[in-house]
Design a protein that fits this description.
BirA Bifunctional Protein, domain 2; alpha+beta; three-stranded mixed β-sheet; elongated; Helix Hairpins; 41% helix; eight-stranded mixed β-sheet
Length: 427
């Protein structure tokens, strides 16, 4: 969440940023509730001060033998006690309202973020690799996979419903190989691997910003306050919830595999074919904890780590800076990595790498203790996919396809598949 001193002292800065985001967050409601709360707090403090003075006066009157006057003052003190109790109850309710409204305000974009209401304002930063040229019309993965006998949407639909998939044979092995390949690559580049729960509580989701705004996109376990993870960002970031980390231990860089579960409540029928937008998918996530002054450099490092996966696999991609209107709720700056998909003749997102500044750290109470001493302050958190496994599988199939329907496996992945070089149709 935003620092209170920021939105209280510079409301126009927040208004401008929200307008650039195209956000409908209830900022004016927050300001009004906070004004009422502060006025009530002033009234409460004045009543308590009067009660304290009255208590001293009663003591002095009793000491001087003026009992009747003391009894009269006691009646006023009783009235004040009743009034203070009522004011405290109102103040508590208003404080809760302010705290709840604070959680609905998104992060503010950095000045370097292009201003625009949607993806049309995104800025391409760089490209890597050349999209392959085919002497035939390339197929999309939703045709390639079933033809190879490794991807089955029909049976998944019978088992569960739409937007699920079954992977057979080499499809299942490829999924597992990609997870291991990504984790090994990130470990070699300094990440600490961590295995985390696939269920998280409400507090964890509030900490990273999925709640309260995006509850409709989550799968909740009935009769509990537990949710299936939408991304490993949630449990990994919350590993240090409520902690103070010494500055000398930063940056910390973690990688984790989890399945991800998303209801996709707001997708309204987008990407209904294939693996692009599933309710369940695998992902390797990267999470960084950084000092405030180091987080911009950490975003570059995190994005490079995700890019390395695609480079090792020989998959063409581009890096795009998201506009103000296209960024996620918790981000202050985001790079999307978009891989080339020949079957769709376009680049598609395969990773979002975001600097969240101190936004999540304030919500989850994660601080850094300065090396030279002094007050602990909220640190900065960053996260990104390294990578979305299903979308990487899509890219492998579509970029590695050949005219006869087989698919070439990238050399970097072959050691994880007992040296297999070519996907051929399975029975």
């Amino acid at each position: 969440m935003l620092a209170r001193e920021l939105w209280r002292n510079s409301p126009d800065v927040v208004r401008k940023a929200l307008a650039e985001r195209g956000s409908d967050a209830p900022f004016e409601e927050l300001l009004a509730a906070d004004t009422r709360w502060r006025a009530l707090q002033a009234e409460l403090e004045a009543a308590k001060a009067e009660r304290n003075r009255g208590s001293k006066e009663v003591g002095a009157l009793m000491a001087s033998g003026r009992r009747d006057e003391a009894d009269g003052r006691r009646a006023r003190l009783a009235e004040l006690g009743t009034a203070i109790a009522g004011l405290e109850e109102q103040a508590g309710l208003l404080a809760a309202e302010v705290a709840g409204l604070e959680l609905t305000i998104p992060n503010l974009p950095q000045a370097s973020v292009p201003v625009g209401r949607d993806e049309s304002a995104n800025r391409v930063e760089r490209t890597w690799g050349e999209p392959p040229r085919f002497a035939f019309a390339p197929q999309a993965h939703w045709d390639l996979g079933p033809a190879l006998g490794i991807l089955d949407f029909e049976r998944a639909g019978r088992i569960t419903g739409a937007r699920f998939a079954v992977l057979w044979g080499m499809g299942a092995r490829l999924e597992r190989a990609l997870v291991s390949f990504m984790l090994d690559l990130h470990r070699r580049h300094g990440y600490r691997e961590v295995y985390v729960p696939f269920l998280v509580n409400r507090e964890a989701l509030v900490g990273t910003g999925q709640l309260p705004k995006f509850e409709a996109d989550l799968f909740r376990v009935a009769d509990t306050e537990l949710f299936l993870v939408p991304t490993a960002e949630v449990p990994v970031t919350n590993l240090h919830r409520g902690e103070i980390l010494p500055e000398a231990t930063l940056p910390r860089r973690y990688c984790a595999y989890t399945p991800c579960f998303r209801a996709e409540a707001g997708s309204y029928g987008r990407d209904v074919r294939g693996l692009i937008r599933q309710h369940q998918f695998d992902k390797v996530e990267l999470v960084h904890f950084s000092t405030p002054q180091g987080s911009d450099a950490e975003l570059e490092a995190l994005t490079h780590s995700a890019e390395l996966v695609l480079q090792e696999l020989g998959l063409p991609y581009r890096v795009v800076t998201l506009s103000t209107g296209d960024m996620g709720f918790a981000a202050t700056r985001t790079y999307d990595i978009e891989v080339w998909l020949p079957g769709q003749d376009r680049y598609r997102e395969i990773s979002s790498c975001s600097n969240c500044g101190d936004f999540q750290a304030r919500r989850a109470d994660i601080k850094v203790r300065p090396e030279g001493g002094g007050k602990a302050l909220p640190l900065h958190t960053l996260n990104g996919s390294g990578l979305a496994v299903g979308r990487t599988l899509i890219a492998l199939l579509e970029n590695g396809q050949r005219a006869d329907g087989t698919v070439v496996i990238p050399p970097a992945l072959r050691p994880y598949l007992d040296g297999v070089e070519l996907l051929t149709p399975e029975v």
